[in-house]
């Protein structure tokens, strides 16, 4: 895992729980690939609908 994931400012995260570094790295990779937050949210919503 790269150290860039460690540089995400945790103060912008609304919860008191620590961020999962692998999840942060995955989201940063998605952003660098041009995937928008809306696309990620749509994917997560679709995935949730089909797993319940």
**What is the N-to-C order of secondary-structure elements (H for helix, E for strand)?**
HH
Computed Rg: 13 Å
Distance between the termini: 31 Å
Q: What does the average pLDDT come to? A: 78
Q: What attributes does this structure have?
A:
52 residues, mainly alpha, disordered N terminus
What does this structure look like?
By secondary structure, this protein is mostly helical. It has one domain (3-49). Helix content is 48%, strand content 0%. The protein is built from two helices and no strands. It is globular. The N and C termini lie far apart (31 Å). Mean pLDDT is 78; it is low at 1-6.
Short characterization:
This protein is mainly alpha-helical.
SSE diagram, text form:
Blueprint: H1 21-32, H2 37-49
């Amino acid at each position: 895992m790269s150290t860039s994931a460690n540089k995400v400012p945790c103060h912008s995260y609304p919860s008191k729980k620590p961020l999962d570094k692998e999840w942060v790295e995955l989201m940063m990779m998605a952003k660098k690939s041009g995937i928008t937050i809306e696309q990620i949210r749509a994917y997560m919503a679709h995935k949730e609908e089909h797993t319940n």
